[in-house]
Each structure stands twice: as structure tokens, then as C-alpha cells.
Specification:
With 571 residues, the chain is α/β, with parallel strands linked by helices. It contains 16 helices and 14 strands. A hairpin with a 5-residue loop joins strand 4 and strand 5. Helix 1 packs parallel to helix 4, helix 8 runs antiparallel to helix 9 and helix 13 packs across helix 15. Bound molecules: adenosine-5'-triphosphate (ATP). The site of adenosine-5'-triphosphate has 11 residues, from helix 11. Adenosine-5'-triphosphate (ATP) binds next to helix 11. This is ABC transporter.
């Protein structure tokens, strides 16, 4: 969760690129087929609207000639065209939903893969290049992106088609305007088309000036909204700790800060929205005056029948509606642009994840090889100089040293989570296991939590029960199938014992423990180590711990201090 100011979104075309990958994916043919059908239906719909215009003219001219029988004869065509138009719209909407769902699912799968690859989810939270609230980007932004892009994209295509179709009508039936001005004989062909288009383009220009900053304001709004959600989630997750501390006032302060940022930015959103809305409303109200002004030459020339008026009116309204679409959807387009900017930023951060100087090479050889290892912070300052070490297979090392010396960071570097610094690490990574101080216990069945990170069907039931017994958790055996938020139910000590049960099941050849027994009493701690060595006597073991009693289970001690590393034999 980030409480930093969001970066000003770059106004670049590159953000539109996040829309492209799906259309190059293995699903592209189905997607293009659906899109083609939807666009085809749009074209047909516009064509039906053009027929409607013609029908209007014939119908009203017939009506005002008082030919009742001929009017009635025209009605079946009207019913046919209306049914065709309605049917096409329903099918088009259905297909759009199917396409939207396929696109969203495909995108979300790709984003999840990127998020969970190369420890990106970890680096996004702890690394140098952070992207705030990735959960919001994956869950909400992607869904909105597909729905909004399809809606706005298809409406835009329809608007352009409508504009082109009715522009031709307006040009043809509107005729030519000719007049004399200061002795000049001026002739404007298609003057109705030009009059309508120029008036709307002018409004669009004014609108961009009035509501332009809405894109950035919307971008920031999403950032602040996500911050509020993340802070609330934080309170929910840490409810017990907060309650023990009586931290309600502090939490209230944090949440109020989030809310203040939302309120402050919201004022900007409102200002730009009311400005944009004023321009749109004034234009919507005044647009009829433009039509009347354009009809004046025809009236003066006595060249206007009711049928012709009706057709000009329908063509004018369609051209107006299609151009006005860009005006009316200005705020939605701005929101879509800000969603694309957020996704573009996420893509950029995921692609440029930390390229620190620590190199890890997997090997099949036994033992751990560390060469000239130095651990740095992201600002370049040094945490620890570890130097070169060879830990032969089957050796057990106890890592100690003052708090903050870099013990956990060294384990992170061994796990590939910390790359800032220099040096080279190699060991058999396939067969290694890391146990942090706070083990992750996913919600679900206890069997799931015990088998983690393997799936629950990985181990036989007997083996699971036996592992629980060895970890002094026999009391949990009847609960193996029970579902619960085990991370909240089990005490920290029980969670650490559960983590050892996982080790008994997985039987790694190398095990890294980072204060993995810190919550246990001495007897339980000693029992667990004894059982670990009983079961896996040849394991290569690296334990970071503060409890001196644990030295008895190790052969070497590595003492990490601010400026030096000492290795000494134990036993
Ligand atoms: N994600 C991080 N970003 C910036 N600095 C960090 C990060 N993680 C650790 N550090 C810094 O690295 C240094 C070493 O921290 P580390 O957790 O490795 O110490 P430690 O020896 O394990 O301490 P302890 O015994 O208290 O667990 C500390 O100064 C810490 O502030």
C-alpha cells in the first residue's frame, strides 16, 4: 500500500498499447470474428437508419398529400425495419458481452502470470520499482478496460459510420448556398454539412480547453480510492494487533488522511466536470438554433416541404448525434485513458523489475557456494559484506549477529528476493526450502495449509498425520479436512510448528530457517530441531536465530557484524 503522491500520468500514446496483446493472442481469430460481426451489425444498423430517413420523407409527403391508403401501405415497411433494428441491437449487445468476457479473462490470466512470475508480486511491494495497489489493477482496471474499450470503441465506430452516411445525405439534399457578399458571388456546396460539422468541432475544441485536466484528476482519484481500500484491508487484517494496542485513533487518523486526499482531488474532478458539462449542455440546448439558421436559405427560396424538412432534420440530428458522441463521452474517454495509464504503468514496472548485481545460478552440485557477496540497500548504501563462503553439503550453520546486521537480507539474497549488491550465489535451488519467521498459512482446509506450497493431493493422509505428530501438532489431526482461516486460528508457535511439518513432508536437501522457531518455548524448539535431524540427517541447514541454545544443533557459527563476518566451529 502506498501513501505517496501518484506520479503525474504521462500523456503518451504508448498506454494504448496495453489494448493490443489480446488481438495478437491465440484467441485472436475468435475475437476478431466476434468483433467483425459486431461492427458489421453496427454498419447494418446505420443503413437501416438511413432507410428510416428516406421512409420518413416519403411517409410525411404522402401524409400531407392526404393519401391515407398509401400511408397505411407504408406501415409494414416501418414494422420490418423496426424489428430488424431491434433484433440486431440485442444480438450485438450479447456478442459484445461475450467478447468482453473473453478479453477480460485472457488479460487477467496474462497479468496474473506476470504478477506471479520472477517474484514480481514481492518486488512490487518491497523493491525499488513499486506500483501501488496491484490488486486493484488486476481485479478492477482490467475488467473496466475491456468493458469500457468495447463500449466506447464500438460506439465510436458507430458514430463515425453514422456521421459518414448522414453527411452524404446532408450534403446531397441540403443543396448549395449561393449569395453575393461585397460584390463577390459566393457558392458553398454542401453548406449544411459544413455548418453542422464546424459548429461541433468548435465545441469540441472549447471542451478540451475546459475539461482537459480531467484525465489526470481521474487518474489520481483511482489511486486515492485504492489507497483507502488498501488501508481498510490493513485494519481488517491486523484487527487483533490494533485492538491490543488500542490503536483506533491512529487508524482513524490514517483513514482520515486517505479520505482528505480523496476529498481534495474530488474538488478538482468536480471543477473540470462542471466546466465540461456546461459546454455540453449549452451546446445541446443551442443546437436547434444552428439547424434553423441552416434552413433559412431553403425557406427564403420556398424550397422546403414537410417531408424534406423531416429528412433534413433526421440527417442533421444523426450527424449532430454522431459528432456529439465525442463530446458527451468526453469524461468516459478520459476515465478510460486514465485506466490505460495505470495499466501501462503496471506493465512498465513489471517489465523493469530490479536488475541488481547479485547473480544466482542453480546447480546440481551439493553444498552452497557464495562468492564475494555484498548486500546493498536500494540507495546504494552497504548493509553487509559477506565475502566468499563454501558451505559443504550436510553441514549445519548457525547465523548470528546483532539486529539489523543483514542476516535476513542474506537469506533473501539466497532466495533470490534481494538482488541489490554484488556477488555470486549457487546451490541446488530445486531442492531447497526457506522458512521465514512468519509462515504463510493460507485459508482453506488444514490439509491445504499443511501441504503448502504443494497441492493437498501431493501427500498421503498417513504421511500428513505423521508430520503433524512429529511437529507436536497431533491435536490438529482430526481437523485436517476442516476449512478455516488457519492463519488467524493457529497461534504463532503453532504456525511455526506447522511450517516444520511441511518440511517433514517435503524433505528438502537444503533448508534455510529465518528465526523459524522464535515463537516456541525452548523444549518445543529443541524437539523440532532434534526431529528434523533425525528425519533428515544429511540436510544442509542454515539457521538464522537469536536463541543461543540452538547452537547445539549446528556445526559452524557465522557471526555477521556491521563490518565483518566471522566463521567459527561449534561442538
Ligand atoms: N525492503 C527493505 N528496504 C530497505 N531496507 C531494508 C529492507 N529490508 C531490510 N532492510 C535494511 O537492511 C538492514 C538489515 O536488515 P535485516 O532484516 O537483514 O537484519 P537482521 O540482521 O535480520 O535483523 P534482525 O535480527 O532484527 O531480524 C536493515 O538496516 C534494514 O533496515
Amino acid at each position: 500500500m502506498a501513501h505517496t503522491e501518484p506520479p503525474t500520468p504521462p500523456h503518451s500514446l504508448s498506454d494504448w498499447k496495453v489494448l493490443l496483446p489480446y488481438w495478437r493472442s491465440e484467441d485472436r481469430w475468435k475475437a476478431l470474428g466476434l468483433l467483425g460481426s459486431i461492427i458489421g451489425l453496427s454498419f447494418l444498423d446505420v443503413q437501416v437508419a438511413v432507410w428510416f430517413g428516406k421512409w420518413d420523407q416519403t411517409f410525411f409527403d404522402t401524409m400531407f398529400a392526404y393519401r391515407v391508403a398509401a400511408c397505411i401501405a407504408l406501415l409494414p415497411i416501418y414494422i420490418l425495419m423496426t424489428s430488424l433494428s431491434a433484433g440486431m441491437r440485442v444480438i450485438q449487445q450479447y456478442m459484445t458481452q461475450v467478447l468482453s468476457m473473453r478479453w477480460r479473462l485472457w488479460n487477467t490470466r496474462v497479468y496474473l502470470r506476470k504478477y506471479l512470475s520472477d517474484d514480481a508480486y514481492y518486488h512490487l511491494e518491497h523493491g525499488q520499482n513499486r506500483a501501488d495497489n496491484p490488486d486493484q489493477r488486476i481485479a478492477d482496471d482490467l475488467a473496466q478496460m475491456t468493458v469500457w474499450t468495447l463500449r466506447l470503441g464500438l460506439e465510436a465506430i458507430q458514430a463515425v459510420t453514422t456521421f459518414l452516411s448522414f453527411a452524404v445525405v446532408l450534403w446531397t439534399i441540403g443543396g448549395t448556398l449561393s449569395f453575393v457578399w461585397h460584390g463577390w458571388h459566393i457558392v458553398i456546396p454542401g453548406y449544411m454539412f459544413f455548418g453542422t460539422t464546424i459548429s461541433i468541432l468548435l465545441v469540441s475544441f472549447v471542451l478540451e480547453k475546459a475539461g482537459g485536466p480531467l484525465v489526470s484528476a481521474n487518474y489520481r482519484q483511482q489511486h486515492y480510492d485504492a489507497d483507502l481500500r488498501a488501508t481498510l484491508l490493513d485494519v481488517r487484517r491486523n484487527a487483533e494487533q490494533i485492538a491490543f494496542y488500542g490503536g483506533e485513533a491512529a487508524e482513524h487518523f490514517r483513514l482520515s488522511e486517505c479520505l482528505n486526499r480523496i476529498a481534495k482531488n474530488w474538488r478538482g474532478v468536480m471543477t473540470y466536470t462542471w466546466r465540461a458539462n456546461t459546454v455540453v449542455e449549452l451546446y445541446t440546448g443551442g443546437v436547434n438554433i444552428v439547424l434553423w439558421a441552416l434552413l433559412v436559405p431553403k425557406l427564403l427560396a420556398h424550397a422546403l416541404t414537410f417531408g424534406l424538412y423531416s429528412r433534413i432534420n433526421s440527417a442533421f440530428m444523426n450527424v449532430r448525434r454522431s459528432l456529439q458522441w465525442f463530446i458527451e463521452n468526453y469524461t468516459d474517454l478520459a476515465t478510460l485513458r486514465s485506466i490505460l495509464q495505470r495499466l501501462g504503468e503496471f506493465e512498465r514496472v513489471v517489465v523493469s523489475l530490479p536488475a541488481g548485481g547479485i547473480v544466482r545460478t542453480p546447480t546440481d552440485a551439493d553444498g552452497i557456494e557464495i562468492k564475494a557477496l555484498a548486500l546493498d540497500r536500494s540507495d546504494g548504501s552497504r548493509i553487509a559484506d559477506i565475502g566468499s563462503l563454501h558451505i559443504p553439503a550436510g553441514e549445519r550453520w548457525f547465523i548470528s549477529g546483532p539486529s539489523g546486521a543483514g542476516k535476513s537480507t542474506m537469506l533473501r539474497a539466497l532466495a533470490g528476493l534481494w538482488t541489490q549488491g554484488t556477488g555470486h550465489i549457487s546451490f541446488n535451488m530445486r531442492d531447497a526450502m526457506f522458512l521465514p519467521q512468519r509462515s504463510y498459512v493460507p485459508a482453506g482446509s488444514l490439509l491445504q495449509a499443511l501441504s503448502y506450497p504443494a497441492t493437498p493431493d501431493r501427500y498421503a493422509r498417513d504421511a500428513c498425520e505423521e508430520a503433524l505428530l512429529a511437529a507436536n501438532l497431533a491435536v490438529l489431526m482430526p481437523d485436517l479436512e476442516n476449512e478455516a482461516a488457519w492463519g488467524d486460528v493457529l497461534s504463532p508457535g503453532e504456525q511455526q510448528r506447522l511450517a516444520f511439518a511441511r518440511v517433514f513432508l517435503a524433505r528438502p536437501s537444503t533448508l534455510f530457517l529465518d528465526e523459524a522457531t522464535s515463537a516456541l518455548d525452548e523444549k518445543n524448539e529443541a524437539d523440532l530441531y532434534a526431529r528434523l535431524l533425525e528425519r533428515l540427517p544429511h540436510i544442509t541447514l542454515i539457521s538464522v536465530a537469536h536463541h543461543a541454545a540452538l547452537k547445539a544443533f549446528h556445526g559452524q557459527e557465522m557471526i555477521l557484524r556491521e563490518k565483518s563476518v566471522t566463521v567459527q566451529r561449534l561442538l
